[in-house]
Each structure stands twice: as C-alpha cells, then as structure tokens.
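Reviewers of the previous submission asked for a worked example of the structure-prediction workflow described in the proposal, so we include one complete record here. The input consisted solely of the amino acid sequence. No template or homolog information was supplied to the procedure at any stage.
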Amino acid sequence: MAQWKEILLSGSDAEIGSLSVDNSITGSIFSGSQFSGSFSGSFQGNGSGLTDVPTTIKVYSGSTQATGITRIEITGSTTDLQITGDDNEIAQISIEGGSGGTYSNSSLTPIDFPNEDNPNIPAGSSFTNKTFSEMMDLMLYPELNPTLSNPSNTLSISPSGFQEIKDTITITLSATFSKGSISPAYGTTGFRSGDPNEYNYSGTGVSDNPSTSLTDSETISNYEIQSGANTWGGSVDYDAGPQPKTSKDNNFGSALPAGTTSTISKTITGVYPVWATKNSITSTNKLTLQSMSSLIEVTMAAENDSGDKQILEVPTGFSTITGLQEYNPNTGQWQTAPFSTFTNNGTITHNDPQGNSVNYTQYEHNGTKTGQRDLRFLV
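From that input alone, the workflow returned the following structure tokens.
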C-alpha cells in the first residue's frame, strides 16, 4: 500500500508533532517567536531569549560544567573546585554542608605555629568541628591582644634648683596627665583610663583643682625660700577606663578602675651664696648658687700691687673646707695646693634678701702676689 509523506512548502504555516534533523536549523524562525516543549542536542546563540534558566546549580556528586552561573552550592566531600569568570576573574565561592566542611583532630599540635615568638596556633592545641574558614583564620588571622599602658602624670616647678634663703619669689607648678593607651584600640577609645577628674597638690600655698583637662597649674605667690628642701607634690585622680578588646572583639584583661596616679615631688633647695674676689680683687661678689655640701670652684681675680688679696667667704652652715686644688693650664689637670696659703680671718657678715645679717667665715690668700687662677676649695 502506498505511503503518503507530507511536504512543507516555502512560505506556508505548518503544525507538526515532531521534527528531527541531521545537521541544523537555519533561518529567521527565532525572530519574534519562541520554541516550547523539550529539546535535546546542542544550541547556538547567546541565550538571551531563554527563560526560566536557573542561576544556581547544585552538585551532589560527580562534576559538571556550565556558564552564566552566579551561584554554586556544593554538598558532599569535594577536594577540587575551580571557577573562572570573564578575563580569568575568580568568582566568589560559597561552600555549604557536607562532612568535608569541618575539621576535627584531638591530637595535640607538637609545635607553635608558625613560630615560638608569636604563635597563631600554640603547641598543645586541638580542633573540633572547625570549618575551612575557621582553620584559615586560625592560621592566617590569629586573635591578637592589645598592648596596655597605664595612665601617668608629670609635674614641673618653676623656678627650680637652688634659690637664695629668705628670697621671696612666685612659684608655678605645672601638671599634665596621660590616659595611657590600648594599642591597637580594637574598637575602644584607645585610652587605658578615663578622663582626669582632680589634680592633687601638696606643700605650702597650694590647693587641689577639680578638672577634666589634661593639663593644670598651681601658682604660689610671695613664697619665702627656706633653708634646705622646699618641696611640693602632685598626683591626679582619674575615671575608670574602657574594657580592652582583642582583634576578634573578645574581652582582654579587665577595665582599669578609677584611681590615682603616683605622687611626684619637686624641690627647690634654699642656700646661702658663697662670696669671692671673682670679678674684682678689691671686693667680693656672689658666686652662682650651689649646694652647701659640695666643693667650691671659682676663678679668682689677679692680685695687685696695692696688697689686695684673693678672698673666699663661706656662709655658716657650709661644709668644712678640707683642702685646695689649683688648675694647671699647661697639663689640663687639677693639682693639689696647700690650703695653708689661705688664712682664716674669722667671722664677717652679709645681708640676706630680707636685710638680715648672715655670718660668714672669710679665707684670705697669704702668699706672694699671684695672678688670675682657677681654684677648688674641697669639702
């Protein structure tokens, strides 16, 4: 019996149950139209007209290859994964679930990793259900601790050093406060303590000053210098500081409670000046103020033909003079000289800054006329 076959004519519309071709379909059949149903084989084109194409593929075993994927989920034990985008850009990878997602090992690590000085993973560590990210963090991004520096204070005094007894002066005490540091700050203020709340002073003519500033000062007017040590002290009260944090926002140590810094003392020493024939052989002059228990070094003026002699005048209370040295400019050395070449003339007086008489012992050179020279009177 003859079999009839349908022939598709050019320009006609046809409805067929199925279509099988050996090579490919060409033409403009895709313009303004869509295929529906299921297809097998390969397709050409950019796929811009396709709908309901998933952007996520899930691989439970084996392997697959695809393009145009924006998310990949991998479940199961996977040891090798490579994703390359346009221009060899590496796409973001999300790995979820599966026995290969965690690492456990109860055997203690035998060494510090990577070194003993600053180990990311100390010797004796073990691991339980650590994910890949957690293990990488342990190895490459360990939890770091900050360095803590306690708060401190300073105190200075002006004028300082030696001042003449009974002199009346103005004294300024200058204080500063440092809140210390938490370094790195790791989300804190970076300061070990809170703000200062009061500056404390001790000594004559001072009072405490409430303040949150990092600097403070106290002035003592019309202060009369006393013999020996004239001493003042200073400390600072401060508020509690923040809780230090690690690089992973865990607590490190404890917050510094409110407290007081140590007391710093500053001293002006009251002394009487030594007098000598330094600038002129005909009269004595004050020397630079110095300790009353140390040697006296002075450049004596040259003696004259009128019989004026080199003189040293030492206040009562000064340490006893026990010897004499003279500087030899040729050798650059201090050489012992006989102190007997100076006669003790007894007591004379000089007035202090208040006009009161102060007793001095006068020593006068008794040898032949001598020129300018550097002398040390030893005590």
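The radius of gyration is 48 Å. We consider this example representative of the routine output the project will generate in years two and three.
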